[in-house]
Each structure stands twice: as C-alpha cells, then as structure tokens.
Give the backbone structure.
Amino acid sequence: MTIGQLKEIQKEIIRKNKKCNIITSIVLCFVIVLTIFIKSKYGFINNAFVLALIIETISIILISFIIKMCVNGKDIAKFNEGFKKLFVNDALKSTFDDLEYNMDEGFSKTIIDQYSMLDTGDSFSSNDYISGKYKGINFEQSDLFIEEKRVTTDSDGDTEVEWIPIFTGRYMIFDFNKIFKANVQVVSKNFYSHLFPWGKKYSTVKMEDAEFNKLFKVYTSMEHDAFYLLTPHFIDKIKTLYKQLNANIMLGFLDNRLHIAIDNGKDSFEYNVFKPINEKEIKDNIIKDIKLITDFVDEFNLDNDLFKKEN
Amino acid sequence: MEYLVYIIIGVVLIILIWWISTSNKLKKMTIKVDESLSGIDIALTKRHEVLTKMIEVVKGYVKHEKETFFEVVKLRKEMTLSEKITENQKMDNNMQKINVLVENYPDLKASDNFMVLQKAIIDVEEHLQASRRLYNSNVTLFNDLVMLFPSNIVAKASKMKAKEFFKATEKQKEYVKVDV
C-alpha cells in the first residue's frame, strides 16, 4: 500500500462519515418537528414529552453511530492495517532484529496471569505484539487494556454495573543481564493497588534512597536480591524514567527477565483516521512509541553482560 | 476513685503492651541485622575465593615482578565488624595491584581464564555491595529504634547499643566500573 492509497481510503471514510452526519441531522430534525407537531395537536407539552424527545435524540444518534460503524468499519480496519504496514512495520524493522509484529494479537490473558505481576481484571484485551532483539537483547511487548467490573446496589435494591479501566498502556519483557533467585517487584505508589497481587504475598523493602521510597514500593521474597538488582545507579534511572514518562510504572524481576508495565493511558502505534495524514508527525509519534522500548535497554544498560555467567 | 483505678490499670496495660511490642521489634531487628551480617560474610568469602584464584592466575603470568607481593587475607569465624572491614580493605588493595599488573600484561588481560575471573569478581562485588547496603539499611532502622525516644527507653533497659555500619571504600565502588 502507498500513502496515496491510504489517503484515498481516508477520503472515502470522511466522505461517508459526512454523508451519515447529514442524513442523521435531517432525520433528527424531521423526527423532532414531527413529535412537536403530534404533541401540540393531540396533547400538552409536559415533562414526559421532553423525556420522549431526549430518548428519541439519543436513539437516533446511537443508530447513526452504528450505521457509521457498519458503513465505515471495513474501511477503518483497512486504513489501520495500511497505516501499520506502511509506517509502523518499516520503523520497527529498521530498529529491531529478528522482528515479529502482530498488530491484532497481544499477550494472552493466561500468559499475563502466569507471570502474576499484574492482575488481569474482569475484562482483558491486548494488541500490537512485538518481539525482537535490540542491541542483542531479546524483548517482547504488547498494549494491554484491563477493566474492572464494579457492581453497586442502591437503597432501592437496583444494581448498576460499571466497567472501570484500571490499566491502559504497555507491557514489556526484556532479558535481564543479572542472574537472581528471588522475585522482586517495584511499583509506583499511585498505581491501582488491586493490580498487584504480590503486595499480599511478599514483604516490602525500604531502599536507602528516601525519594525513591516516597515514589515506589518494593516487594520481594528475598531482601538481598532487591538490593542486588536495585543498585543506586539503577534506582536513579528508575526515578528519571518515571519522571520522564509521567505515568505509573511497574518493574518486575522474574526468572531472569525484567517485566515493565506502563500505565500511560495510550494505545500505541495507532492513528486517528480523521486526522490529516502528516508523514513527519506520524513518523515522530512512531519513533516516540519505539523509543519507549529502546530507552529501557539503553538507560538500564541491559546490553551490559558483565554479570552473565559464561555458558 | 473507682474510675481512677481503671484509668491507672488501662495506662499500665497500654504501657506494658507497647513495651512488649517495642521489645519484640528490637529483637526482630537484631535478628535481621545479624542475618544481613551473615550475608556480608558469605559475600566476603566468595570475594576471597575468586580473588585467590585471580592472584594465582596473575602470579603465573608475572613471576619476576616485585609487585606480585599480595597482602595475606585471613577470614575466620567470629570476626568483629572492624576486622571484616580490615580484611575487605586488604582485598581492595590486592584487587588494585591486580589491576595495575594487568595493564602491563596484555596477554594476561586477554586470557580467557582471567576474563572469566574478572567477570566473576565484578558479580561478587555487586553481591557484596548488596549485602553491605542491606546490612547498613537494617542497622539504620535498628539504630533509630535504639536512639530515638520513646523506643530508646526499652533499648536501654535491654542493654542494646547502636550498631556499627559497614563502610564501603572508594576503591570498592570502582571495581564495578571495570572495563572488560
């Protein structure tokens, strides 16, 4: 696919969308006028009438949205696929070795559950799976969306179900350059605590850095390993990255791999289909998304194999 | 009058519970400090082992150098903390001598055996640093209890004293930065 073809698909989506909007407006006006006419002829304008009008309006907008999705759904999927093939895939290929990219699939719920680093909530989905090598370090990553179901019952006994997003961001796993026995988890304090089952299982450790202790909680099954992995240099890097990202983060050390979860509220490697295509802006955004992976390898010196024992 | 008795009993009970919990906290911290100190012992022993092997390898390459004189390190059970620090400093000095010698012998620096040992010593150093930091962190918590009011009252009554920190030398910190 070329940029020209992508722009054509986008034009078509916008054209169909405009058409839908015009039809919806006409239908809405017609229905409102008709309702007023019927009501003024046969009855009084009262609260029930206003309520009916609101319900009618919402229904029409909803129906219009569903029609829009039916009409444009295929084109939007085609646009997203084209966008990812054209821009994302190329950018990933030029940065990583042994690349595997699957835009539709991500980490499975079972895999994330097995790691026990993050609670997978009541609704779990994942996409943009990337695996590869950067500076010789194996990694894999995916976007994750986790929601929690909250049921509330009022005094009348009516129950209301709400789906609350508790994690929207990236989950990455890197090969780690130190060998350790115990599991260690570092969690920023503002993270939704229900997400971390380890908090109940392991003890907390205080590091010697007061600022770090204010920002993070450290859980571990062996205190020595927490100090072995979290060197003063590593602690400084975590603090810097945390401030740069301005999002809640979790770092987990498990089976000689480093797990990182970033709750930045972003769906990475995506593009708003209604936004004019600006190649430079798109490339800059993709580089930003890729940099999130490379920064961890670079800043944490994961390619430093001084601590790895020879095979 | 009856109320006053109840109040006194209540206050005495609160003090007693606080005393027992503080005393337990102090005992737990003592155990934690002792455990982390044994972590230092293990790390020092490992460092000594790797360093001894390194010295053997170095001696094999530089038989005629005067600098091959290394300090004798003796690690034994029941050593005091200051003795441990002294022996650790001797190891620092030996490590520094090895680094100087290695610079003059490119063959030694490039030898597989030496490179493996150099990687091992860096890892051992990291473990020693971790043990030291953990020990010092526990000592800080323990000393806070021993020195700060009101827990210092219980500590004094139990004849507990502030513990010494395991100080790292500047040389020790440098080893982590060794280029291989």
